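Troubleshooting: if your tokenizer reports a length mismatch, compare your output against this known-good record of 281 residues.
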Amino acid sequence: MIDLHTHTNKSDGTDSPRELVNKSIAQGLTVLGICDHDTTSGWEEAIQTVRGNLALALGSEISCLTHDGISVHMLGLLFDGAHQQMQVMLEETRDGRLPRMRKMLEKMNAAGVNISMADVEAARPEGATLGRPHLADALVNKGIIKSRDEAFQGMLNNDSEFYVSHAAPTPADAIAMIRSAGGVAVIAHPFASHRGEILQASDFHELVAAGLNGIEVDHRDQNPEERAMLRAIARELDLAVTGSSDYHGTGKLNSLAEFQTSPSEWEKLEALADKRRVVRA
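Known-good structure output:
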């Protein structure tokens, strides 16, 4: 079983890297992709824990914005974690999250929602990349909403009156950086329309020109029709097809390995990195 898109408490998941690796081993996964948002801070703990038949495909989920303001998430896998320019880009993207959070809180306060930065910080694990899920958890803790899912279907949706975008690279720039760092770029859940505005099929040609390697097709936030469209795009553009859980622990309903990548597609994707960076015990 190959699951290339999961999160730990180094961003907005609830499992530590150690706990996630242990769960993956117990569940019989053969390849685990850890892609915390805009950070590689969970890599070392995962590397120290991996054993048995499990291999790690380490990476990061990079927050991007198109020139039209559409939010896109780009999975960078198997890149060199010591690549300085990549780490600068990740750091700059993380830095943009704080002013964004403050603006969202200001909007909520103006609408009569009693929530503060202290509430958000109390809900964020130490060292985790700040994000909307921590705001969702703070809202849950205060009894304003019932769950993260409710938050992202309403108050924290990209189309919500409270939504604020943040400084981020374009998808093409993120892809170019991932490739420069020796990794492979897979666009995450690109047709998840319930999250807000999405890309059009024609947009993929520009991403391929920038170096895109794969499309996350099988994902719970994309319905069968959307998956079929993405599979056709991947076939037309000779891109790898992945399936992933986007597991966040108890933070979301997604179950580990509920969607998977076939061994043949993973082999195709892995071969496109400039070095063999899969980590084994």
